[in-house]
Amino acid sequence: MPTASSTATSSRLLSLLSLLQARRDWPGALLAGRLGVSERTVRRDVDRLRELGYPVRAVKGPDGGYRLEAGSHLPPLLFDEDQAVALAVALRIAVGTGAGIEEAAARALATVRQVLPSRLRQRVDGLEVAAAGGAGVQVGTEVLLALSAAIRATEEIRFDYESPSRPADDGPRPPRRVQPHHLVVRSGRWYLVGWDAVRADWRTYRVDRLRLRVPNGPRFTPREVPGGDVATFLSARFKGSDADAWPCRGEVVLALPVAEVAPFAGDGVVAEIAPGKTRLLTGSWSWAALAAGLLRFGGELEVVDPPQLRAAFADLAGRATRAAGDAGRPGSRGR
């Protein structure tokens, strides 16, 4: 039987390692079938991984098999090309997460980039990542790890919370008690989504504003976030509704070409109805906010629906006239 080349062996070791990471237990015969080799070759490859420092344990049973376990030290990491590029991209993004790991992520990215083949390095270097709306708010890594541990252990957490309406020097307050369910990053900020049993409601907290107390509270039975998807739930809360939809929605026709409206329409629906005229269906958390947001386009507009939006424009017009004082009166001349 011919001996496989070192290149083929290295490639097979990568494939074997990827398979061992994909599920807990692997029967030897199944591994051999997936790799297209004999079970004897699988045993030899497992021994090679052990020599490299990977703790692969033999599993007893009718079929026999192998399991990759956590070791006492970090072995050399082996990645195929797609995994290496994915890791480099993730590290580049992690530099701007505000999770307190920016320096470590930057050093890890430099290490990975240094050993990448030139063709893969060019792919990674071609990726430009910028944080929308500026850099994220810094959050301590230890806080994120503690919250993640509490979520996995389904343990209630206790914390003090500082908000703009109630600053830290507002006197002593009892700690909040929340069942933590999800950690989410949105627009450069970390949020905790949890169930407040006292208020019997789901709540969202900015992680940079909470200070954890120890120890944690009792265990709890996890419940499903409304709608079953935490990203959709959080988006809905930021829109001020229980569903992922703005509570106030209106339709207008703008005297502007669609090309000037679409880039700034957000999640609105844009349609061209004639050259230089665009129909826009959009929403906001209040009628006043919706009307003010539509005025930012700077063109003439016609309200199609609903009447509440027309009333909001009338209210804004009155407030704008009062704010302008004498300059807003007919026939007056601004100074």
TrEMBL record:
Residues 9-64 form the HTH deoR-type domain. One of its GO terms (molecular function) is DNA binding. InterPro entries: CBASS_pafABC_assoc_protein (IPR051534), DeoR_HTH (IPR001034), HTH_11 (IPR013196), PafC-like (IPR028349), Tscrpt_reg_HTH_DeoR_CS (IPR018356), WH-like_DNA-bd_sf (IPR036388), WH_DNA-bd_sf (IPR036390), WYL_dom (IPR026881). The keyword Transcription regulation applies. Keywords: DNA-binding, Transcription, Transcription regulation. PANTHER family: PROTEIN PAFB, PTHR34580. This is Transcriptional regulator. It comes from Amycolatopsis rifamycinica.
